[in-house]
Design brief:
- Helices cover about 40% and strands about 20% of the residues.
- It is an alpha+beta fold.
- The N terminus is likely disordered.
């Protein structure tokens, strides 16, 4: 869909709907814009018009939507679309426990190149199999995202207890069960799938005794 010539003018106001019609989300990368025919010069003019804002290198946000608590998560998911939100960030999104992480915790494959970004991210490494089991599709401010389920998040807290702390893992499993975010069976299956049964089963049995 071609963009009208006046979209990039100094007083253009109708540009954001047109960008959405082209298939761009609230957050989009420069490469996404290029794929629908919007070049770097046009992006600069849209920034000057305040129709979009530059969030980070190569990442933009449309200005026609309100900021939400998911602002940073949406930006990270747009900048690193292959990432899986996990651990403390997943706990926060699922409303489990009391953690308020200043960074967005993401999982990437063991051999993947670490993302280069000014956005506040904490990277952990998952195996290919771990990037599939218990990973759910969601979205933040219109940006497609993936996140570990409540049961899978609990198990990951035990797997990465040296990073997040055993106290966080224990709080996560207690709160998940108390608030029925996941069943004991779901947590058990996630532990088996992630080869963490020996870590999780004793705690689960003690809590259910």
């Amino acid at each position: 869909m071609p963009l009208s010539a006046d979209i990039f003018g100094p007083r253009a106001k109708g540009d954001t709907p047109s960008l959405r019609e082209l298939g761009l989300n609230t957050y989009f990368r420069q490469r996404d814009a290029a794929e629908v025919g919007v070049n770097s010069r046009q992006l600069r003019r849209l920034v000057d018009n305040r129709s979009i804002e530059r969030v980070a290198r190569g990442l933009y946000r449309m200005t026609d939507t309100e900021y939400t608590e998911h602002y940073t998560r949406a930006a990270v998911c747009a900048r690193i679309p292959s990432a899986v939100l996990c651990l403390l960030t997943a706990l926060r999104v699922h409303d489990i426990g009391t953690q308020l992480p200043p960074e967005v915790w993401i999982a990437i494959p063991h051999k993947a190149r670490a993302p280069v970004t000014v956005l506040p991210v904490r990277v952990v490494r998952f195996s290919r199999a771990s990037l599939r089991y218990g990973v759910e599709d969601t979205e933040f401010e219109g940006v497609p995202a993936r996140i570990t389920s409540p049961a899978r998040t609990v198990v990951d807290c035990f797997r990465f207890r040296r990073i997040v702390g055993m106290d966080v893992a224990l709080e996560a499993i207690r709160d998940t069960l108390a608030r029925r975010k996941a069943t004991p069976d779901q947590i058990q299956r996630a532990a088996e799938a992630c080869r963490a049964e020996s870590l999780v089963r004793p705690v689960l049995q003690a809590l259910l005794a």
